[in-house]
Amino acid sequence: QKEVEQNSGPLSVPEGAIASLNCTYSDRGSQSFFWYRQYSGKSPELIMSIYSNGDKEDGRFTAQLNKASQYVSLLIRDSQPSDSATYLCAVRNFNKFYFGSGTKLNVKP
Amino acid sequence: ETGVTQTPRHLVMGMTNKKSLKCEQHLGHNAMYWYKQSAKKPLELMFVYSLEERVENNSVPSRFSPECPNSSHLFLHLHTLQPEDSALYLCASSQDRSSPGNTIYFGEGSWLTVV
Questions:
Q1: What is the pLDDT of residues B14-52, one digit of tens each?
Q2: Helix or strand or coil: residue A54?
Q3: What is the distance between the alpha carbons of residues A72 and A58, in angstroms, rounded to a whole number?
């Protein structure tokens, strides 16, 4: 298994704050990078994908990729209680996708 | 509705039973996957099928046997399982191509309890 590392958390932020989630990966051959959100008892759902160095913004979410440092991050602006979930980082190498163990985010009202 | 349907959603089986998990994707994808998710562990990639050919078998015990009869259907046959095999089993699909936008989509999962 290729390694994908995430801080398990929980990460607690107040409502309206910025939540910052981080991920590192070991396989330099990884081609694409993803953030999934998983609510308790549910399956993972895709939030964002990124494959070029730099930032990619989609609404309240910004993904950041630094291939030289093998680092991916996700920023959630104006965090809402409904954002409370586990966030999974994933990397793709051809047709194989490898996941981190996830960071649990709690957004407090 | 993700376009990937798994049945059954919940399964309780004894260690001597034989059962199967079923997955069907309606997304026109040509790669399908089985993942295992246990508490506090990363998603474990079990099997990958691309164009109905198994391209990955991640050291999974032989008591798990996958079958992919066509690009839309994937099964996981289970026999003589152990209690530690209790977990959420997730099926997923993707379009097998090298483009950066290739993304994986999950079904709702099958909760398996081995007693």
A1: 998 899 999 999 999 989 999 999 987 888 999 999 877
A2: strand
A3: 16
**Per the structure block, which two tokens stand in for A54?**
């730099």
pLDDT at residue A2 in the model? 66
HEC string of chain B equals: CCCEEEECCEEEECCCCEEEEEEEECCCCCEEEEEEECCCCCCEEEEEEECCEEEEECCCCCCEEEEEEECCEEEEEEECCCHHHCEEEEEEEECCCCCCCCCCEECCCEEEEEC
Chain A nearest CA to B63, separation (Å): 20
Tell me what the mean pLDDT of segment A68-77 comes to.
97
Q: Which residue of A has its CA nearest to B50?
A: A95
Q: Which residue in chain A is spatially nearest to B30 when comparing CA positions?
A: A95
Using the predicted structure, report yes or no on whether residue A1 has a pLDDT greater than 60.
Answer: no
Contacts of A48 (CB under 8 A, 6+ apart): A34, A35, A56, A58, A61, A63, A74
Of B50, B102, B109, the CB nearest to A92: B102
C-alpha triplet B97, A53, A95: angle, nearest 5°? 20
